[in-house]
Amino acid sequence: MRILSTLTGNSQKLDGGAMFGNAPKALWSRWMEADEQNRIRLGCRALLVQEANRNILVETGIGAFFSPDLKARFGVQENHHVLLESLAAHGLSHEDIDIVILTHLHFDHAGGLLSAWQSDSPSELLFPNAQFITGARQWTRALEPHSRDRASYLSDIMEPLALSERVILVNDDGYVPELGPDWRFHFSDGHTPGQILPEIMMPDGPVVFTGDLIPGAPWVHLPITMGYDRFPEGLIEEKEALLSDLLSRNGRIVLTHDPDVALGRVVKDEKGKFTLSEAVAEVNGLTA
After folding, report:
1. What confidence score (pLDDT) does residue 182 get?
2. pLDDT score for 244
3. Shortest CA distance to 112 belongs to which of 121, 50, 97, 120?
4. Which residues does the chain have with pLDDT short of 70?
């Protein structure tokens, strides 16, 4: 039996225009309210998957490793490492995690791997007993980023990961022996090359952690993309393929950046547009 729970991490405020790409503010402001600096609230949600003999964590969020000036620049709201608190609420510490799956290696998804910032010492890699799983093509991208997304990959994260010698890379066949046959991965290149989206089989249909392919509920609508996406047209095609597949299999998705919606089931509305039903703000001990 698998038990699924969503975990809150550190939150951010980022520019709404950047998050909604070519969608005008008159449209996206219906979905998310902007502050006086045009920023919208964003979560950094992780997913805890508990199996019989292991604890698997999907993503770690942005964490709290930024210095105060970078924390302000990227709109991180809390000073402490919120994800560690969320793990503690489930009776776990970072030392109890056996596998960490990283959809990609941008700092707002992998920064929670590091300990919180301290003025007198550098942050250290947490999760000492875990193997770290990410996409092979994403790993290559992170080591040799394009000038457009170089700022999203930080040596503070990449160097200790590489030195750990505990990184497992997922090739395009999507099979990871360490996870076993009940796990599969979808691949997405629209946001960043080689992003992996884990699918967890559950009795009531599959659950997919959609990473930055679908960061929140408004982005379920096919034309909506982010300004941060590398290949928006390709991303829309990937999103349509994934949502169509999940619709046919009664699937649900977990949203990492939506501050209010953690999970929802993929459906189509009366106009034939993809949307979510049974949306919930938190998942705590899902077994079906």
Report:
1. 85
2. 98
3. 97
4. none
Burial of 246 (0-12, 13-18, 19+ CB in 10 A): buried
Residue 117 structure tokens: 């910032």
Q: Can you give the pTM of this predicted structure?
A: 0.97
Secondary structure (H, E, C), the chain: CCEEEEECCCCEEEEHHHHCCCCCHHHHCCCCCCCCCCEEEECCCEEEEEECCEEEEECCCCCCCCCHHHHHHCCCCCCCCHHHHHHHHCCCCHHHCCEEECCCCCHHHHHHHECCCECCECCCECCCCCEEEEEHHHHHHHHCCCCCCHHHCCHHHHHHHHHHCCEEEECCCCCCCCCCCCEEEEEECCCCCCEEEEEECCCCCCEEECCCCCCCHHHHCCCCCCCCCCCHHHHHHHHHHHHHHHHHCCCEEECCCCCCCCEEEEEECCCCCEEEEEEECCCEEECC
Strand ranges across the sheet with 3-7: 167-170, 131-135, 99-101, 54-58, 46-51, 3-7, 284-286
Please write the tens of the pLDDT for every residue from 63-89: 999 999 999 999 999 999 999 999 999
> Alpha-carbon distance 138 to 144, whole Å?
10
